[in-house]
């Protein structure tokens, strides 16, 4: 797979020998329903990949043909492709009443690769930012910067918006409106 090969050559992904999923990990079942490029449901349970933010559905970018495209749909399609091609396994890292954050790894050949790093380094997801604008997981910010410098994935389009910055701007605007 060319996308994964590029990520491996970029050197931004730590690898280890592939083995069976360790205890505490679960396979992504065929019955999952993708909501976004970083979130899905499995039955009544909702999951999100820790430390990354996919494009927000309904936001757009202008493709090379001058057509507006849904950025969130692009992120979702790439996650779906990686799930189909690499059959990742995930483990919970944190839980809220409505959401379980997970880390996932994909097996490519005999390598285990962090799924979030793959998606970010290919330019189809972004490093999540905390309320101070700092990366939640700095390694993903490094992968994002590398993808941006290569104009990988969505970074090839000049009007793509970093979703964490967009969400932060929306939250600040709502907070300002609420205080009026």
What does this structure look like?
The chain has 180 residues and is α+β, with helices and mostly antiparallel strands. The protein has a single domain, classed as Beta Barrel (OB fold (Dihydrolipoamide Acetyltransferase, E2P)), CATH 2.40.50.90. It has 5 helices and 12 strands. Strands 1, 2, 3, 4, 5, 9, 10 and 11 form an 8-stranded mixed β-sheet that branches. The protein has a two-stranded antiparallel sheet with strand order 6-12. It is globular and about 45 Å long. The termini are far apart.
CATH topology: OB fold (Dihydrolipoamide Acetyltransferase, E2P)
* Count of discrete alpha- or pi-helical segments spanning 4 or more residues: 5
Beta strand count: 12
CATH class: Mainly Beta
Total number of domains: 1
Q: In percent, how helical is the residue content? A: 25-40%
The topology string of helices and strands comes to HEEEEEEEEHEEEHEHH
The CATH architecture category equals Beta Barrel
Low-confidence stretches: 1-19
Helix-and-strand structural type: alpha+beta
Coarse shape: globular
Question: What gap, in angstroms, lies between the N and C termini?
Answer: 53 Å
Biggest sheet architecture = 8 strands, mixed
What would the average pLDDT be, to the nearest integer?
85
Strand content: 25-35%
Radius of gyration: 16 Å
